[in-house]
Amino acid sequence: MAACGGVKAASTAGEIFNNKDDKKGYQDAHKRYFEPITGKWKKFPDTSNIYYQSYSEAAAELIIYRKEYLDLLISVHLCKIKKVFNHMEANLFAALNDIPTLTELAVLVLYAQAVSHSYIWKVWGPATEQINMLNMGPLHNEVKVHVQTIIDNPNILASNNTSYENSALHGEKWHQPAAVAAVLKLSSELPDLLPVLVAFFGGAMITWECFTTEFAPRSPIDLASTEDKEWAWMPPTNDVNEGALGSYMLYI
């Protein structure tokens, strides 16, 4: 993802509200502010340690609690002696009032809810430990068909009639229903939501095509027999390779 627009806003929010350096940022102020709102101490998504969906999770957080984050930024700067934003605070405050940036954040949310969360549930959810990555060609084809469906008719994902049954991969329930509801509520203020959504899904399609070339028709994986695939078994993620213990477990 390019480090601008919605992604940059999410990254900046992460640096302000969940900085990897405990001596920087407003982690404690964030927890105290959101406790009466959410009923618990709440951490902002960890965008400093890049992991799958970190920016999308941050985008959902900013869309759902946009007003609260604007109020929190104001409260923080009013507590300062000079009562002014620093550079990052000013950028985030501007971003949360900027229609193009909000549009990008909304698209990140919709893509995650319609594609990413459902996909990762299939490869990293319960009872997926024995899945052979070499058998995942059909799943990847289903993802690409679904992405193309959204490109052809974005209204099924970004309209008042949107539902997980017809716009999420395999009809899986939304991972964050509140995030989808917040996007749809804001959509009337985002005139370019549909074309940006189509452009984003189009870029995702290119990436999926590149990511799945090894599963293409007539490829070695496609032509391999069931027995060959069992002999060459591979896990669907590289989690077991993380660290010496994981490598040993895979070896065993």
Given the C-alpha coordinates, what overall shape results?
globular
String of helices and strands: HHHHHHHHHHHHH
Low-confidence spans: pLDDT under 50, at least 5 residues?
A: none
The overall average pLDDT, rounded, is 88
Strand content: under 5%
* Count of separate structural domains: 2
Q: What is the tally of beta strands?
A: 0
Q: How many separate helices?
A: 13
- Gyration radius, to the nearest Å? 21 Å
Helix content: 55-70%
Largest sheet: none
Could you say which structural class the secondary elements and strand pairing correspond to?
mainly alpha
Beginning-to-end CA distance, first to last residue: 37 Å
Account of the protein in words:
This protein is mainly α. It is 60% helix and 0% strand. The protein folds into 2 domains: 1-97, no CATH class; 126-252, no CATH class. It has 13 helices and no strands. Helix 1 (5-17) crosses helix 5, helix 1 (5-17) packs across helix 6 and helix 6 (99-124) runs antiparallel to helix 9. It is globular and about 70 Å long. The mean pLDDT is 88.
Brief digest:
The chain is mainly alpha-helical.
List its salient traits.
13 helices, 252 residues, globular, mainly alpha
Could you outline the blueprint of secondary structure elements for this entry?
Layout: H1 5-17, H2 27-38, H3 54-64, H4 66-78, H5 87-95, H6 99-124, H7 137-152, H8 164-167, H9 177-186, H10 193-211, H11 220-223, H12 226-231, H13 243-251
